[in-house]
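Predict both folds.
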Amino acid sequence: GNNLILTIDMTIQSIVEKYLEEACIDNICTDGGSIVAMNPRNGDILAMANYPSYNLNTPYEPYSDELKATWTSLDAASKTAALQGIWRNKTISDTYEPGSVFKVVVASAALEENIVSTDTPGIFFCSGSQEVADRKIRCANEAGHGYQSLRQALENSCNPAFIQLGQKIGVDTLYKYFKSFGLFTKTGIATSGEATGIFHDKDSVGPVELATISFGQRFTITPLQMITAVSSIANDGVLMQPRIVKSVTNTDTGAVTNLDTKEVRQVISAETSKKMLSMMESVVTDGGGKYGQVTGYSVAGKTGTSEATEGSSSGYVSSFVGVAPADDPQLVVLLTLYKPQGKDHFGGHIAAPVVSQI
């Protein structure tokens, strides 16, 4: 019978639920969507929502119009499966391929190790594709981006450039940073059902695996792990444990137990953090994230569009992470849309404008 005081901000929560639902319906996201808003300074979850959702007062009844339309025709097993699906907290319990949002993690590792600097011209070259071992990995821009600095490669979300960057960093160093960013373990958020990422065993990472990891594909993490890592980049390089319960009040005695914020570790330097935020701001002002702009605010961000492995039915995942204000981050928002079937599936086109509205 204790009272829980959550970190959730009811105003922000109602805003994200509204825009997430609109985005999932507008873009015909057949596997729904999820969104998290976090305070990067202390790890507080300000809002967390999934779509399709359900009414907590009537959890056994269909909530979305799509499910209502077919509900009476479903057998008992299908109804149970549908309910289990909408009760799952995708943000915490489901993993996904993060795609290009993950490039901020790879770029952070490279800057921290002094492998590259942000604006050295022409250190990467993109002809529209990259030969790796026995295959050709294409860039989204088939004409190619030509010579690029790291900042330009991030703005363009250029896969060949990040393949070249991954080769420069090497698998041992990359995995060291993945571990440091908390991607190999659960975040430890105080709620049930948390999953953790699924990565290639380090010893089995060949040239092709190294290439795809470098641009955020062929491994999975949870949205919560992704936003926690981005929040550490926004928080002078300090990784915070996500917090959803602020305090517990004993209703008999009135005693209040506070749950403190928890600093996990310093992942990158404050200097690298500033460089990353500067490049992520360029993504929004000059690059693929321009629909993430907000009048009167400096927004840093990164788009993501991952596609399923050949032969898989999981479809595209479109996402955008936004950090605001870019020069003094107070808010990080990650929106993830699963299997959009509308006219577009690029994260910069369908996810960034929603985060901008929020």
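Second protein follows, with its predicted structure tokens after the sequence.
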Amino acid sequence: MTKERGEKQRALWGDFISNPTRTIEWFGGVNYDNLEKVLGKIKKFLTEDPMGEIHLMVNSYGGATGIGMNFYDAMRSVYKPRLTTIGSGDVDSSGIIVFLAGSKRYLTKNTTLLLHLAGRTFGADKRFSTADMENILKEDKLKDYQYACVVSDGTLGRYSPEKILEMMTRNTVLTSEEAVAMGLAHKVLE
């Protein structure tokens, strides 16, 4: 990163980004490519400085819940970096799980977050038995509950998993201010 770019980034994000060269972007879907890219960079940063703060910019329309959970669990239970997440633009669906992996979480003022129930897309030529459909439904309901538990934890229990599931059923869109009020983020950046 050039000195000029680093100064612009510090001016934009303020003092909380102590080292802009340790900033990673998760832009786009919650998919294996982004998971592999971001985890690789985080592991590299941890090798260089295990105690240094890492910043993750998140702008995501979401994707596979299991991939989001993998990232969340890796950050919270396995690697345990000093991770600060900054949500900007859209932080939707499984993108919220990626965002919640940070121990410090910030949102830009124009960020929105979308909570909704799991869904599936099927190819035109796929056939599923009733047993297949029952297993898909069972897995999706389990993923919905796991998702609701992670979001509930992000609110420090102010919102129960059942309340989060209600919000998901209604396809709830949150402003950055509403997300801070719920406890999902610590601050809206000016």
